[in-house]
Design a protein that fits this description.
InterPro entries: ICAM_N, ICAM_VCAM, ICAM_VCAM_N, Ig-like_dom, Ig-like_dom_sf, Ig-like_fold, Ig_sub, Ig_sub2
Number of helices: 2
Number of strands: 26
CATH architecture of the largest domain: Sandwich
Radius of gyration: 46 Å
Organism: Huso huso
Protein name: Vascular cell adhesion protein 1-like isoform X4
Strand order of the largest sheet: 11-19-21-24-23
CATH topology of the largest domain: Immunoglobulin-like
Subcellular location: Membrane
Membrane topology: Single-pass type I membrane protein
Shape: rod-shaped
Order of helices and strands: HEEEEEEEEEEEEEEEEEEEEEEEEEEH
Number of domains: 3
Length: 337
């Protein structure tokens, strides 16, 4: 090959090599993902390694940048108070492609202004109720996770990944709850968490509602057997007890023929019938009714009075003693004569 032809061939190779390298878009954003709280400052660098640069800059609704003859452009905002900033870095080149651009992965977030629970005044055992968590003025919704807790137990978790809204929103999240007897007096709490991902705060920022106790109502149920048989000796004392669990707390009513030696007392959720100097007239069935607004539980206590020494025996004994004394006294008088 002639020397001139060799120079031309080498020149073509160089030209083609330069064209290929210059045809590649090279836009580097650092950091590539930015998570910033609404109102906070933010700074992001954008640069390129290509040499045929005419200028670089940022397109944005806030603090746009345009740098001529520069391979670097810095987007710097002292206080980011625009939700739709959508910054995009662009670089202009002398060769094709003449402009390259890349959008910044920017997440602007805001803690919930307020979070609260809306619940019924009470819930019925075994009946589904709705507890609603209200989250006010939070952004962005797609990173929001709302959880309902009963004590330390997480019941439900709801997320909003489908929501593409950038602006703050209000969310009302209903949670179905079917309470049991043991849930009476349980404490419920709603937790709103922003799961912001890479570049976000760790642990994830969250806000809790004030705890809320919701009464669970149910009819009374006896704490002991519904049927009892008890005994007392005549002239003795005995206490008949009746207690039940219910919400609201049950009241008690006893049914039996009243007597002077019988007294009713209710204390600390237990109702008693106190019988002193028991007689055969006290032997009967005593009915205890524990009731509240939602139902009644009934207990029957059958009392048997066992006899002491029969009266006829007492009379005979006394008579025998009197006769014996009379005989002794009569014998003494006879001897004295």
């Amino acid at each position: 090959m002639e020397p001139g032809a060799l120079l031309v061939f080498v020149g073509l190779l160089f030209f083609n090599s330069e064209s290929v390298s210059s045809a590649v878009c090279d836009v580097n954003i650092d950091p590539s993902r930015v998570v910033v709280r609404f109102g906070d400052p933010v700074t992001v660098n954008c640069s390129t390694t290509r040499e045929d640069v005419l200028g670089a800059g940022w397109e944005s609704s806030v603090s746009p940048v345009n740098k001529m003859n520069s391979k670097i452009a810095v987007w710097n905002v002292s206080s980011l108070t625009v939700w739709d900033a959508e910054p995009k870095c662009f670089i202009n080149y002398m060769n094709e492609p003449r402009q390259c651009a890349e959008k910044l992965d920017l997440v602007i977030y805001k803690y919930p202004e307020n979070i609260s629970l809306i619940a019924p005044e009470f819930m019925k055992i075994g009946v589904e109720s709705t507890i609603t968590c209200q989250v006010l003025d939070v952004a962005p919704a797609r990173y929001l996770s709302v959880k309902l807790y009963k004590g330390d137990e997480q019941l439900v978790n709801r997320s909003f990944t489908h929501d593409s809204t950038h602006f703050p929103v209000n969310e009302s999240i209903p949670f179905p709850v079917t309470p049991t007897r043991t849930d009476n007096g349980a404490e419920y709490t709603c937790v709103a968490e922003l799961q912001l991902g890479p570049g976000g705060l760790k642990p994830n920022p969250e806000k809790r509602s004030p705890p809320l106790k919701i009464p669970v109502v149910y009819k009374p149920s006896l704490l002991s057997a519904a049927e009892e048989n008890v005994e007392v000796r005549e002239g003795g004392s005995i206490v008949l007890k009746c207690s039940a669990d219910g919400s609201p707390a049950p009241t008690y009513e006893w049914k039996y023929p009243k007597a002077d030696n019988v007294q009713e007392i209710t204390k600390d959720g237990v109702s008693t019938v106190n019988i002193t100097r028991a007689s055969y007239s006290n032997a009967r069935v005593y009915e205890c009714h524990a009731k509240n607004t939602y139902g009644v539980a009934m207990k029957n206590i059958t009392l048997t009075v066992k006899g002491g020494t029969p009266w006829i025996m007492i009379i005979l004994i006394i008579t025998g003693v009197v006769i014996a004394i009379a005989i002794v006294v009569g014998g003494i008088r006879f001897c004295g004569r």
